[in-house]
Amino acid sequence: MKNIIYTLSVLLLLAFISCNEDSFLEEMPEDNIYANNLFQDYDGFVNSMNAVYSWVREERSRADNIPLTRCTCWDTGVDNAFMNNGHSGMTFLNWPTHIYTDQFIFENMFDWLYRIINSTNMIINRAQKSDVNWMGSNDEENLNKKNYIIAQARLIRAWAYRHLTYCWGDVPLSLDEIDGSNYQNNWTRTPVADIQIQMEKDLVFAKENLPLRDDNPGNVNGAVAIHYLAELYLAMGRNAEAETTARELCEDSEYHLMTERFGSNANVSGVPYMDLFANPLPSQGNKEVLWALLNTEPEAVSYGNEDNNYMKNMWQTYYSKDNTIKKLDLEVFYSNNGGKGAGRSSITAPTFDLYEEQDDRISDFAIKWKLVMPNDQGEMEVVLETNTNHTITDGKYDLDHFQWPSTRKWEYVHPNTSNASSSDQFNCQMYIRLAETYLILAEALYKENKNDEAAIWINKVRERSNATPISGSDIDIDFILDERSRELVTEENRRHTLIRTDKLVERVQKYNDFAGPTIAQAPKYFPIPQKVIDANTGAVMKQNDGY
Questions:
Q1: What residue ranges do the domains of the chain occupy?
Q2: 203 FRET partner, CA 20 to 30 A, in 32, 74, 149, 376?
Q3: Contact 44, 38 (CB under 8 A)
Q4: What are 115's strand-pairing partners?
Q5: Pairing between strand 345-347 and 367-368?
Q6: What is the rounded distance in angstroms from the CA atom of residue 171 to the CA atom of residue 189?
Q7: What is the pLDDT of residues 459-515, one digit of tens each?
Q8: Cβ atoms < 10 Å from Cβ of 147
Q9: What is the model's pTM?
Q10: Rounded to an integer, what distance in angstroms lies between the CA atom of residue 381 and that of residue 321?
């Protein structure tokens, strides 16, 4: 099948594949899906949103030629995570001054996010056409279906601009479909404050036109819109609106924290906190998840392939490189220790010290403190206790700590033991959950000097994991950031949070032995890809400071 590509000055890639433009304008083969016949009815718009969701899931898949996830750029190299088993394309995570303007990972991320934006713009634009068959039984149902599609697209557009503004600051704001006829090479960078105003409009529209919970947990919904809108209001300094918005979700009965054991492992030893990750979907009893990333085994996908999730590879330490572990039957070892990982990222040692000893979030159920193997009687025996021993050598890449404790949030054991060493991972995962909304609400209350009430919401999170309750006098912004780390480590977009609270340099210096010494000399934002600047010949696009 021929494909279509529109190469744009800001590297916006059209949603639907690539081929010769003239051929696209002339050919309309019935067996191919092109934009003009895809957007004829409601089903076509649903399929187009499915494509967008597929691209969203790429956040946690491998970024093309580099063995790291795209989200690595904002969840590692921060206060609570460092690069462990390194790669030449990742050194900036531990040495943040090692960033250059044509670095592949930043080009890849920039392209990816603008591809999503242009695709959502296309959906929003095409949904306005009067001849669309929305397949409703009356005008009201047709309007509801139309707004349901537009609201999803606008929410995802806001989601993409959220990443862009936290990673690059001012970026081009594109709200129109780029179809090849409106090519431009004079893009300018729109101030973050102006982009946030558009994000607010998109999120408010989504909040008003999406159900609080969607039948498909992989779709965005009203709860996701509320969550991001509350966070956006914090970033904009509109703390009272952040409180009101977050409270709307936190006090609704549709979602709640999972404080009791549930799901497939409820009858075996464990803790409610970790049941969330083993049972990430509402259909599995999880009433805390707001948005899930769906996945499936590749043989179950009709088109034969599905990008596999890479979170296990990123966060599970490469234990089989250890001199003791490498001598074992590795297929059996992987099957009994959460699968095979490459250990690209690890939790920083000081982060573990933020927990109380009795906190479930640092228990054996949540952190891989012991590596086990079955003995001849089939009983599990400890073969290695993990540790955070490490040294920092100036000028040397002192990495590859193969005994480092791992989070167990992203474990995945292949159902076939003979494939236990596979890097593939096809389980569904939570993307955002209500506990984070509680902490957003607590932050808004703190900023309004309502510390006692903020403590109530923080304690709801802490008490689930048996952490000692706190009082309002214990709360400041660092405590809130500590609690976010305790609850959301490896989940949240941590760099975004630290930039939003203006704590990136301070906390990386305090908690990250690797990136801390040079973070103050590194630019706040990533570089605008040089090829984007070079292609924008009709206007000067200034590079971020420090490059």
A1: 309-427
A2: 74
A3: yes
A4: none
A5: unpaired
A6: 4
A7: 999 999 999 999 999 999 999 999 999 999 999 999 999 999 999 999 999 999 999
A8: 18
A9: 0.93
A10: 20
